[in-house]
Design goal:
With 291 residues, this protein is of the alpha/beta class. It contains ten helices and twelve strands. The structure holds 2'-monophosphoadenosine-5'-diphosphate.
Length: 291
């Protein structure tokens, strides 16, 4: 990697903790390969220091930011403008600077959709989706699906009241296309029949809960595309069960890569080399899993 110089434009990742983030190697590899004078740097910051650190960084040679847990919501207070999708989602993961103004975006949902489309060719418009879980990631995915014209978005969550809140927000703010599903095999089976895509956004299946399925295995019918946003392990128990049942599967690392690719083009105006990003991330994850 080239050493940063006075001229080097900085892209800062704000979050806490950041020790396991794969974003710095993923973006720096592409800056290197394309010979771009940029450097992506993780900056761990507490909620207490966020405002001051952000203000200080804006006085440096910064071209953009990524924002991750736990600052995706709070950071919005300090921005000049919000992209309409980020405003609707209520969270920001990418910040660009334009004419000295900070503009917040959310590329998480777009990252998921690009991963889905690359892997399966399925367009979003007019299609029917079934989401398990309704945390921050589900929110970004569901809102982006609604923005992009999904015909129906079913949402099923352990805590039904949270699903209800998200469904109402989608229906009121974007389009009347979302519906809560009861967490029973019978209700899930009925709705899944007419869906094209099942998406797990819960933490079930993630290390250390590798052997847990977020839905009854008998519901994984072969017509379904089954996507998991969990990427540790790379192929979750859900994806392995779905593949064995004849479903098309979409592993979670794609969302991580494409949310980064979308952010990269927002900061720089340049399309990144996705294959380089993907190779970097896969080899890092494999090394970590072998340890
Ligand atoms: P993220 O922001 O990464 O999406 P999150 O906000 O912590 O993460 O959301 C995690 C999701 O996984 C939630 O929908 C959560 O359900 P609750 O709303 O009921 O908490 C779901 N989840 C976590 N552990 C679960 C479990 N053991 N069984 C079912 N759902 C679970």
């Amino acid at each position: 990697m080239n050493y940063p110089k006075v001229s080097t434009k900085l892209i800062i990742l704000l979050g806490n903790p950041l020790g396991h983030s794969v974003s710095p190697p993923m973006h720096n590899r592409v800056f290197d390969v394309l010979g771009m004078d940029y450097c992506y740097m993780p900056v761990e910051v507490t909620a207490e220091n966020l405002e001051k650190v952000f203000a200080g960084l804006l006085r440096m040679n910064v071209a953009g930011f990524n924002v991750t847990i736990p600052h995706k919501i709070r950071i919005m207070e300090f921005l000049d403008q919000l992209d309409p999708l980020a405003e609707t989602i209520g969270a920001v993961n990418t910040i660009c600077l334009k004419d000295g103004k900070t503009i917040g975006y959310n590329t998480d949902g777009e990252g998921f959709i690009r991963s889905l489309t690359e892997e399966t060719g399925l367009p979003v418009a007019g299609r029917r989706f079934f989401l398990l879980g309704c945390g921050g990631a589900a929110r970004a995915i569901a809102m982006t699906l609604a923005f992009k014209g999904a015909q129906k978005i079913f949402i099923c969550n352990r805590t039904p009241a949270k699903a209800e809140t998200l469904v109402n927000e989608i229906n009121n703010k974007i389009r009347h296309c979302a519906e809560v599903v009861e967490q029973t095999v019978r209700s899930q089976a009925e709705k899944l029949q007419d869906c094209q895509v099942l998406i797990n956004t819960t933490s079930l299946g993630m290390h250390p809960k590798e052997n847990v399925l977020p839905i009854d295995g008998s519901l994984l019918l072969p017509h379904l595309i089954v996507a998991d946003i969990v990427y540790n392990p790379l192929h979750t128990q859900l994806l392995r069960t779905a593949e064995a049942a004849g479903c098309t599967i979409v592993p979670g690392l794609g969302m991580l890569i494409y949310q980064g690719a979308a952010a990269f083009s927002l900061w720089t105006g340049v399309e990144p080399i996705v294959s380089e990003m993907s190779e970097t991330v896969y080899s890092l994850m494999k090394t970590r899993q072998e340890k």
